[in-house]
Amino acid sequence: MALVALTGGIASGKSTIARRLAEHGAVIVDADQIVREVQAPGSPVLDEIAAQFGSAVIGPDGSLDRAALGGLVFADAAARARLNAIVHPAVRRESARRFAEALATDPDAVVVYDVPLLVEARVEDPWELIVVAHAPADLRRRRLVELRGLTEADAAARIAAQVDDAARLAVADVVIDTAGSLEDTLAQTDALWERLRPAQADGAASRSL
Q: Can you tell me which residues bind ATP (predicted)?
């Protein structure tokens, strides 16, 4: 199994890369999806979030009000650290379970962990490759405003809440430049898949001997 980490700043085009790799046959494990699942109503994680941040972050239906929580933590590093201390261990356990499940299903699988906070939380894990989706912060801010409807201030705050581009690029084995056209991003992703495919072929060949 090839275990690949895919990361990038907010609005960097990371999800586009993940979808393309899935089309090629990669198994995508989405950290954001896991976060939502471990924060489901009735979960120990959600109970601890409510205890730490108050009932204002819980909606009328008992689910997490992600916007309310985001408003508390995006501009407050100490609050963000408290939240991460609650959420990250649960996400780590569930992601490990999914990696193992993928390996049990197909020993030659290419598993891509789509993880925004790699540098903050998982950079020391034994990845075969770390792939970084990269676009300049100014472009990502425009995308947040024009495509997601954020205000300039909110977009800037969300970018500032993440590690800077230099920190992500410093750990990259592969950088996919997403500042150009969609076609260019997809072509770079296709080239990445060609790099990953030999691992699959080698595994299949060794089992046939």
A: 11-16
